[in-house]
Amino acid sequence: MEVAAGHHQFQVVVRLANDSVVDVAENASLTFKNALELGGNSLDKTGDGTLAINNLLSSGGGTLNCLAGTCSGSGSLGGNLNNSGGTLSPGNSPGVLEVAGDFTQGPDGKLLIEVGGTEAGVSHDLLIVGQTPTLDGHLQVTLIDGFEPGHGDLFNVLDFDNVLGTFEVIDLPFVPDGLAWDMSLLYTNGTLAIVPEPATSSLLCLGLFLLFTLRRPRL
């Protein structure tokens, strides 16, 4: 299947009878608004355009291979998702994409997470993986809708039980002076946080220590 131009939708159930390829050209898109049943087959997404997944994708296993361009949408994939060379963008600015099987991202793949608030799946993107995510490649977090993170904000961007690998590159947006991104829980529970930057925390501790020392009564 080839989408050479324009924006197109399937609003009926689509069932694959065998392994298939959909090529979506740059600045074009193809959206599945109803169920896409892979039936144990693979669907290869090629081209620089966008394949959007909404509602139910696959009720019979199978694998979606994002080889180029963008794979996005808010929906559920009953099989596996391999992002070997494209950009996976969960949600529809923002939203939730659920993969019931395994999620594998290769060294040339990118996971794009949009953040416009602290509520997972509502104001920022969330990728849910039912089986095992195997991570590599690029994680890019971008701010949307004028949102500015604050101290103590938490963003649950990944949901999984066990994870293999790590992202090779992580791009995080700037935060206000005195704050920093904390990635210590990213591979534990898929959470990013906003904390005081280390220099600020150290100065605060030093200030409290000096205050305590100066005010301590002499014996």
Provide a compact summary of the structure.
The protein has 219 residues and is mainly beta. The protein has one domain. 10% of the residues lie in helices and 44% in strands.
Description of the structure:
This protein has 219 residues and is mainly beta. It has one domain (2-215). 10% of the residues lie in helices and 44% in strands. It has 2 helices and 26 strands. The chain has helices at 186-189, 198-215; strands spanning 2-3, 7-10, 14-15, 20-24, 29-32, 36-37, 42-46, 50-53, 55-57, 63-66, 70-73, 75-77, 80-83, 87-90, 96-99, 103-105, 110-115, 126-129, 133-135, 138-143, 154-156, 158-159, 164-165, 169-171, 179-182, 191-196. The strands form 5 sheets. An 8-stranded parallel beta sheet has the order 1-4-7-10-13-16-19-23, with no helix packed on it. The longest helix is centred in the last third of the chain and has 18 residues, at 198-215. The protein is globular and about 60 Å long. The termini are far apart. The mean pLDDT is 89.
* Count of helical regions: 2
Q: Which range best describes the helical content: under 10%, 10-25%, 25-40%, 40-55%, 55-70% or over 70%?
A: 10-25%
What would the principal axes of the Cα set say about the shape?
globular
Mean pLDDT: 89
Low-confidence stretches: none
Count the beta strands: 26
What is the terminal separation in angstroms?
85 Å
Over the alpha carbons, how many angstroms does the gyration radius reach? 21 Å
Per DSSP, what share of the residues sits in E-state strands of 2 or more residues?
Answer: 35-45%
Sheet/helix structural class: mainly beta
Summarize the biggest pleated sheet.
Answer: 8 strands, parallel
Q: What is the N-to-C order of secondary-structure elements (H for helix, E for strand)?
A: EEEEEEEEEEEEEEEEEEEEEEEEEHEH
